[in-house]
Amino acid sequence: MIFGLFAILTIYISSISLLIYGFFKVKKYQITDLKPQTSFTIIVPFRNEKENLPILLESFSNLNYPRDLFEVILVDDSSNEKFQVSSFRFQVSIIDNIRISNSPKKDAITTAMQHVKTDWVITTDADCIVLKNWLLAFDNYIQENKVSMLAGAVRYQCENSFLDHFQQLDLTSLQGATIGSFGLNKGFMCNGANLAYTKSLFDRLNGFDGNEKIASGDDVFLLQKAIEKFPKEVQYLKADEAIVVTKPTENWKALFHQRVRWAAKTTSYKSTFGKFLGLIVFFGNLSFVFGFFFLLLGIWSYPIFVLFAFLKFAIDYVLLSITNQFLTKTRIKSLLLSSLLYPFFSSTVALYSLFGSYEWKDRQFKK
Question: Could you read off the pLDDT of 90-122 as tens digits, one per residue?
């Protein structure tokens, strides 16, 4: 059993090392003095977000980008109260979501697409804030590279609580894996809170056809379809100015359901690399859980468990550290406690996602 768990750990360390190599392969991008040319439609699906939407719209008002080159479409997914838009210097409209599938968010984007007149769309979430050069970074990269889809980074705006620090650590690991996989030319994951693509690409892919029954995945399934058919046209925008800031969940229950929603789509991945990495990470975390219980039961000695934990935490720390430096420019907080808790949390989420249901926007979804 000792050799089995250490064998899993060896594969885990090798896989994370590859992601670290891939992370450095994706070069940082700096905006230049190119004149903005790209026209964007920003699509924001929302449900019951009357507190968050004004903050997001205010960040759009502060964008350092020509007002005639972007517009905003808010897609209301049956909110309890209708959101009223005040006047802005940019064009913004609200439309109602037309439900045709099991996925409210995919339906919202599909509905908005019928109103898009620009070449590019960029999706974000209602609880986000964008930086002033967000669109400028995307525009400059698009002008300099032949791309049809661009994935960007997301980080949390954390308060000084352990729950927030834990979520930031979790999201940092996902962002690190995302960037690393792109660096290996094996991109399989992205975040719909910061994803841009051409309207023509969406049409060429027939939108979300093929995964309408899965409630989430408006981002990763579209990305994987795009990479499968047009691999050279899908890239990652590793730029400080292009990072989107979002809110962490408010309690552990909401966090658990959110992560179950994210994990539930893994089994439907088209990406073989994505499935393999998901399994390796799952078994890597589960092996730590087994090792901990082996220590409690006296099957493992203390030095063996410490060695096992040190090797796992060391490789995790490298990926987390380089990714966190890109995302936040600050040191990682609550690292030790979060690292000890994370394998238990992650393993529970993964196992539950195979069979359980989850809540999302006051709705119940089944696997």
Answer: 999 999 999 988 888 999 999 999 999 999 999
Residue 122, CA atoms < 13 Å, CB-side half-sphere: 27
Widest distance between CA atoms in the chain = 68
How far is residue 276's CA from residue 326's CA, in Å, rounded to a whole number?
A: 26
In whole angstroms, give the CA distance from residue 31 to residue 14.
34
- What count of residues does the chain have? 367
Nearest to 156 by CA among 142, 181, 140, 174: 174
Annotate 273-304 with DSSP letters as a single string.
Answer: HHHHHHHHHHHHHHHHHHHHHHHHTTSS-HHH
Read off the DSSP letter of residue 358: E
What pLDDT digit, counting tens, does each position of 76-97 carry?
998 888 887 777 889 999 999 9
pTM above 0.90, yes or no: yes
DSSP annotation of 149 reads: E
What residues contact residue 319 under an 8 Å CB cut-off, 6+ apart? 16, 19, 20, 23, 173, 176, 177, 180
